[in-house]
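Case study.
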Amino acid sequence: MNTLMRVIAYAVIIFIAAPLVIVVPMSLSTASSLQFPPPGYWLGYYASYFSDPGWLRPTWNSIVIASATTVLTMILVVPAAFALVRHKFWGKGVANLMLMMPMAVPHIVMAVGYYSVFGQMRLVHTHLGVILAHTCLSVPITFLVLSANLKGFDRTLERAARSLGASPLQTFGHVTLPILRPGLLISALFAFIQSFDETVVAIFISGRDAETLPRKMFDSIRQEADPVIAVISSLLFLIVAIALIAPHVVSALRGRFTTKGQEKALIAQ
Amino acid sequence: MSSYLSLKGINKSYGDFVALDDVNLEIKKGEFVTFLGPSGSGKTTTLMIIAGFEKATRGEVEIEGLSLAGLDPQDRNIGIVFQNYALFPHKSAVENVYFPLQMRKVKRKEGMRRAEEMLELVGLKGFSHRHPKELSGGQQQRVALARALVFGPDLLLLDEPLGALDKNLREQMQIEIKRIQKKLGVTTIFVTHDQTEAMSMSDRIVIFSQGSIQQADAPLEIYHRPKTQFVADFIGESNLLAGKVVDAASGILSSPVLGDCTYSGDHQPAVENGQDVTIVLRPENLTISRDPIEGRMNGRMKIETIVNYGDNALVIGLSGGVPIRVRVLGADVVILSEGDECCFSWDEDAIFLVAE
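After joint prediction, the assembly is written out as follows.
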């Protein structure tokens, strides 16, 4: 049993890690198209990524669209989560279902829908169109993450704040918001990633003007298999890795700092 | 008695369910009052109405004659210690204590100094920069107490604050809370379902059952002169036996189990001849012997069960089909065994009557 578990575990690790192991060397490759193993190594494709407007423009588009999507999603989801978690009202079940719908409907169906409706509204090939579509797709996951956080929130803390002299608004600012901050950040991150990563709807409606990075990569791999794709993949992987490790490093540093402070306080006694 | 806090005819219902039924209570300034009762008896609901988190369906809460109706919780100046302490996890101990001062626009420097002083008073000097999760249960309790007291509240409410602590710590905190309350002289309402806690800490105990106050008296008064059958049963251990008053003037009653017997007339409720009463006999006021004891009243019973607690034991016997509980000293229990026939006896002033 133990051995079997081990084998499965390693298989899973290899399965997940293999693309990374292949992509990073390919990004450093001298070959003129995607090729593994690489014939030689250089940084030329990194240079061409950072100097080619054909790549930088979609990157910028993606950042703008993902950021706007995140803001819009949070504006919609935060009040919705508070209302649905904390209050009982008529039609609550339906509201819950509606929020989850975009998750259940296949993206390709949504994409076709957006293509025809946004076409009539002249929103195809615009940033706004993609932002609206991505917001709709981001809502379910963001709502799930946030409402889970909100359900775990101890409301006695709010009562305590009120009894200590805080108005409802002060209670929200001094107690509710700071305690929910990690949950809010994570759900916002999910919204951002959902948009940044989204390909199907982007292919249908982003067009040339609002072209996103995944769409550009998809086009590129179809036409020429440009090794810059491997560069972008490696860079994205690097960003994610830093984002995952950074909080641990920060808290480890902070932990060392505070224990030292406490020791001093104890000695001072 | 000049009253400080008054509850006047408080009713609370949720739909058809009546949670509080005409609760009236007067509390003096500086008094330590305990609300005692089983869960669901209305004690916490009453507390939440005083705090302003629940609205009474009818009735008024007044402090020094001024109604609290229309005041939001944040404007009532009432300190509350919650059951789970409700410390803000993102703030250190001293920041938690500073919070109510911050809300009252006290300058940070001055406020932090007062918060530190209050932490010192509750015995937490040197812990001010720890976060709640770095403190033990007892320490969190002290922070919560400091936070509820630092702004000089008109009233301190404690909602089962010791429930989560282990026995030794609980006793220690009982003494601490009492000490701090006395030192600051703050009027305090303490909610608990633990009667030893209520007995040891309170100036007065208010007993709740099914949404109404059964009795509000000093602890020993409650113990020795229960006004209702519920109180007699709920506080301490008792033998509750049915009886009928034969002669109220000379203190004679008859009971199927005890037979005809006399009771001392002091401190008994007003009863009439022929009235049905409940006779309360505390187990510690009964004595077990082989033969009837002269000068005392005696009954006979057959011992069913002996429960040993080390320094004392509870002997449960049957007399005329009714269980009788007797508390005996540990040394005396060795001569007894289950199945024995024996006598139990009591003094006439051991009998308390409850007329209901």
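Observations recorded in class. Chain B has two domains: 5-229, 242-354. The radius of gyration of chain B is 25 Å. We will return to this complex in the next lecture.
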